[in-house]
């Protein structure tokens, strides 16, 4: 009888301490999970911000290129007009 009583006492003592320990572990697990979730969210926001910056820079390069091409076309047209203005007019015979 005595070994069974000792075994029962140990089970009761271990059973009562396990949930308390499990609760403290779960709190730390919850805080770790929330930290991980916060880090994931921060990382996702940073990735989105970088993608937006990259897209904006690409759009700016595209607009700059269009503007350079338009300026080059205008200068070419001006040179052509100047060249034709300096030519003597053809005389009809």
Describe the structure.
- The chain is mainly alpha-helical and 93 residues long.
- The chain has a domain at 51-81.
- It is 91% helix and 0% strand.
- It contains 1 helix and no strands.
- The N and C termini lie far apart (140 Å).
- The relative contact order is 0.04.
Number of distinct helices: 1
Q: From N to C, what is the helix and strand string?
A: H
Residue windows where pLDDT falls under 50 for at least 5 positions: none
What does the average pLDDT come to? 85
Distance between the termini: 140 Å
Question: In terms of topology, how is this protein built?
Answer:
Blueprint: H1 2-86
Name its key features.
1 helix, mainly alpha, 93 residues
Summarize, please.
The protein is mainly α.
């Amino acid at each position: 009888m005595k070994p069974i009583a000792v075994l029962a006492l140990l089970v009761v003592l271990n059973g009562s301490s396990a949930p308390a320990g499990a609760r403290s572990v779960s709190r730390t697990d919850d805080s770790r999970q929330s930290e991980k979730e916060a880090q994931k969210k921060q990382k996702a926001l940073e990735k989105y911000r970088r993608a937006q910056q990259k897209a904006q820079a690409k759009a700016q390069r595209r607009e700059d290129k269009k503007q350079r091409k338009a300026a080059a076309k205008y200068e070419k047209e001006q040179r052509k007009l100047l060249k034709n203005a300096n030519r003597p007019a053809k005389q009809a015979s």
